[in-house]
């Protein structure tokens, strides 16, 4: 039996609720599979870690994450920990991303089930068939460039951040995008988003994306959209962006959240943040093998419904599926989970019981969704 | 008779087509009004200026704009002038903004007529009642901070831009937002958008917005939304942002374009870019009086339909209305134009002729829309 170590970071707010259900799903996979074993261990992270230890990312948590085969996270933050205070839960998240070198954030955005079209804010004719994988560069740009706070010498009334990119940083994220595009048959189109008509960092971005793909993946289709235009297209005709969208950190933050409302509920969508710099040689291999992977639902800690047991666990369960696929190389278990989720959402062959959480107009509890997915599985 | 000098910059692509109709409307106002006279003069700007003079913003054009009471623009750019070439049409636009100090970009986003709801990509129930005025800071942030291109010493494989703001820059744009909010009865709510959980420039932004409003406009309602969250809300429930949205340059670029697709056609929306730093004293006056004002539709130069005579001139005609309101203080003429546009869009009392351009599913020519608006006026 092959054994994998999975660190679980429930975090704050609804994090523990939703993570508990994904853990059940992983335990079922572990218990029923003849060839693998998953060893799950919980660690403190985020606001709850600040309360317990004074810092959002305790050294022991970071260490465990470094040693693990994969990490499953809930969500961090909440009104209890103010944006203005010195120690904030997000610092833990940014520290973990940087500490593990998680430079590739992957966010699929599609309809897990067509039965969800009615929950989309977009007209069904506009939203239907949206199938975008957003690849966001996660440890560069304005998030990690040199910064100056208000009040510091020499110009106390000025503050700045630096949007900075180097050629290798853009090369490696381009290769991840290319590999994900190649995982599909036929390969997906790549849409690169930048603001090259204004920003120097975007001109570097565009040049490196073009050259990397031309040299290493000449078979892939590539186009470029300015970020302002992309934010329109994402609403007006999202299918035009079907395929792989690749962009820098801050644009990716904005566009991936914009995209995430299309499928009707934030509660449904998973994400993966991966480390491991593919060399040109790796890039030619059919699979992208991350050295570290952090998996989390895209929604926040939703303090308003925390502890009520009504949060939608599906985004976290689908994140666990991505964990199996990308970090553990267990695609068949990932697919099994995705199929079970779809079945529950389609609500077919399972007795017509309206099995949906409040975000999808239902009244099911978090645990009931978990129960049903485990049962179908 | 009071006389005003208005500089007209038709620009590229469909710019000349749509500007011609707005000019007709302004000429009707000038000819029929007993108390004012508008002197219109055309100048070269954008790609056509590059072709004619080698630069997108000739000195004579900048000079005329500085001396004018207001500027009406079409649109600039097109595939003919490459993003990678040294001289680009957008540089003219950025140069004009900076040269005139046009720091406040104002973009109303609403349904000129409820009959347009069916053109929105959003469900009618989501889109209806959207009524947002976006105030974008236009000459600060990453657009004008220090930048380094790829290939330059000392680190030739790195490029960066600097998102930089000073206290006075944020104060003055906050005051514009406040004055626009106060122009409505009851005053509008102010939604400030930033990324204060990550960026130092956003922490400065938030602090200055809070303090300026607390000190000078304590009666106004203010809330804060992170830019990623705002980009979701704009799609999922845009009415939550009804009122005044105020944000920095790059976020404003992205969010205003995102918002602009809600009303169904980009061809309908006007914008104003204003200069003139209101002091605290000005700020208490009921009206914001810009020293310079540039008015343009929000759409681009649409090279695919340029010269076909089918572009929608309404965004430009509504821009002319804003010109009358903000720069010339002629609110009653602005209202008359806005009413005429609404009537044509509502298609009432004008014979049932389907008076719409192709972007709204009709087959009317640019000039026919102009004819009808002039007639109704
Ligand atoms: C919490 C915050 C720092 C984070 C980000 O901006 O990256 C979040 O918005 C996300 O997208 O994961
Ligand atoms: C053309 C470009 C430089 C410009 C900008 O980014 O400001 C445009 O997108 C706009 O919003 O007016």
TrEMBL record, chains A, B:
Catalysed reaction, written as an equation: (2R,3S)-3-isopropylmalate + NAD(+) = 4-methyl-2-oxopentanoate + CO2 + NADH
Matching InterPro entries: IsoCit/isopropylmalate_DH_CS, IsoPropMal-DH-like_dom, Isopropylmalate_DH
Cofactor: Mn(2+); Mg(2+)
Enzyme kind, highest EC tier: oxidoreductase
Tagged with keyword Metal-binding: yes
Free-text function comment from the UniProt entry: Catalyzes the oxidation of 3-carboxy-2-hydroxy-4-methylpentanoate (3-isopropylmalate) to 3-carboxy-4-methyl-2-oxopentanoate. The product decarboxylates to 4-methyl-2 oxopentanoate.
Subunit structure, as described in the record: Homodimer.
Name assigned to this protein: 3-isopropylmalate dehydrogenase
Species the sequence originates in: Rhodofomes roseus
